[in-house]
């Protein structure tokens, strides 16, 4: 009996150890499963967060439109400012002895012909003097006629011996003196007539009356100065001040476009004279641009000029790509790292085709075409290349 009881107790103890072993193994497996699940969950969350961050960063990078301008042939233009003036101004004053002005026949802005009377001077005294000289001519002619008649009668009597040769010589001298007095009287009358003809103030040549400085009743003389100013033929010019460096690029015959201030009018002109000297203080020289007459051109007025001095190969950008600030003009470019960078430039000619860049760009850069004011240097962007307009 004791042997049987011991055997049973041995089997029960062995079974109990097996159950504990299986339980421990089960707990270990469950723990490993939980650790694996936790690891997978935490790493999966970090990966998802990293992916979401990358997608968000990609979504926050703005796309900008850029152009690669290259280099095109554009007109090399020079801008200048200056004043309008008469190309050939004619000051008109008193040519004769003067007098009191009776009438003024013209107004500023009126066209006149050569020799046309501008103002009439009173000539009542001069007219009487001319009449007196005309009468003296007739007196001298009468004396000359009488001397000629006496000489002819003496010649008829000289052959009979009634008149000596000495008397004949005296009569010839009297006749000749009478004829000379006729010529003197005629010259004096012609002089008076010429002086009277110069009393009126007349236009020396055809042109446009610019100013009038005389009124009826005014007494004028040799010291009265300029009474009228005229532009001969109505020809105008612009006196353009230009920097010394630009002056070297301008030649006689250079085409120019003149725009009077306050107007949109563009008047074609041509350089007809380039100053041979430069002002030592301002370092500027004068360029004279001939322009045809226009109502918008007023001598003394201000104007802008654009002179075409040739052609050059320059980058050409749309106007929206060129910005300005306190330091001057600049553009924004996208560098090789797709980062915004600021580039100072000097503007050349501006036309309907765009803005030419005189310096600052080579033409191979990616230039921001639009929305440059909303970008900052160093900002990351995604460039979208657009074909540059030509």
UniProtKB/TrEMBL annotation:
Record domain CusB-like beta-barrel: where: 240-309
Family: Belongs to the membrane fusion protein (MFP) (TC 8.A.1) family.
Domain of life from the UniProt record: Bacteria
Subcellular localization, as worded in the UniProt entry: Cell envelope
Membrane-traversing stretches: 21-41
Keyword RNA-binding listed: no
Lineage, opening ranks: Bacteria, Pseudomonadati, Pseudomonadota, Alphaproteobacteria, Sphingomonadales
The protein's name: Efflux RND transporter periplasmic adaptor subunit
Domain Multidrug resistance protein MdtA-like C-terminal permuted SH3: 316-368
Residue ranges occupied by any Multidrug resistance protein MdtA-like barrel-sandwich hybrid domain in the UniProt entry: 99-224
Coiled-coil ranges per UniProt: 137-195
Pfam assignment, any one: RND-MFP_C
Entry keyword set: Coiled coil, Membrane, Transmembrane, Transmembrane helix, Transport
Protein's UniProt keywords contain Transmembrane: yes
Gene3D superfamilies, sorted: 2.40.30.170, 2.40.420.20, 2.40.50.100, Helix hairpin bin
InterPro entries named in the record: Beta-barrel_RND_2, MdtA-like_BSH, MdtA-like_C, RND_pump_MFP
